[in-house]
Amino acid sequence: MGQINAAFIKQLWMRIQCNDVPGLAAQLAYFFLLSLFPLLIFLVTLLPYLPITEDDLLRLIEDFAPRQTMAFIESNINQIMSKNEKLLSFGIIAAFWSASNGLNIIVRAFNQAYEVKESRPFFVARGMAILLTVGMIIVFIVALLLPVFGRQIGLFLFSEFGLSSEFLVTWNAIRWFVSSIILFVIFTVLYWIAPNKKLTCISAVPGALFATVGWILTSLAFSFYVGNFGNYSAAYGSIGAVIVLMVWFYLTGFIIIIGGEINAIFSRQKEGC
């Protein structure tokens, strides 16, 4: 078993070097940064039509994002929205275009992992990227709505039994569990559909599981490091929050691509290659 694990890790390490995973992760970080604020603008402009507030949106991001970036994100959103309230159309176009560019990088990385070429027409590939973007936005909205309604329902049920204080402890565990499940679903669909290779949904599970657990643990560890040891503001001044955000996006892209490499290794082993 130890030899198998060692061989697997060695093969994964070779793939990381040969497929230039660090370089692709850096490209992903760039497009993640470009798409972040248009996506948040789009979601903020939707808030009047949803039973959630801007605080609910920021609280969901705050669960995973490094603490040092939250003030930066919040201040920029407020500044942009105060200048022009009619930003919904801009937010839609910019978010879709930037996010679909990022998904194109993911598709290219997964195709490299499976050693296949992109044979789908440009409009099909771009359309798939946009549809995945739409799907992720819908899932993101669901992720916002579930905690809000879940908290209201939970407080009502627990108050009926006089257990409102106990609910708050239980709710924190449930909230993390629900967020993890949603992340797992997103990653599973991404690993299943994005590569130009016919795959089963089950074959996407190993990479999705790794990406879900790896991203949550890495985000929490990086947030703890930034909050307690890494004083980026002292080294980079006012752009320290941007540097922290880019490093977080880089780690996110790295983990997503490694998940695809893990699925590709299992796929080749199953095919006997």
From TrEMBL:
Membrane topology: Multi-pass membrane protein
InterPro entries, alphabetized: Virul_fac_BrkB (IPR017039)
Localization annotation: Cell membrane
Pfam families: Virul_fac_BrkB
Protein name, per record: Ribonuclease BN
Ranges annotated as spanning the membrane: 21-50, 87-107, 128-153, 173-193, 205-226, 238-260
Keyword entries, A-Z: Cell membrane, Membrane, Transmembrane, Transmembrane helix
Keyword Zinc-finger: no
Annotated source species: Bacillus methanolicus (strain MGA3 / ATCC 53907)
Signal peptide: none
GO cellular component: plasma membrane
Coiled coil: none
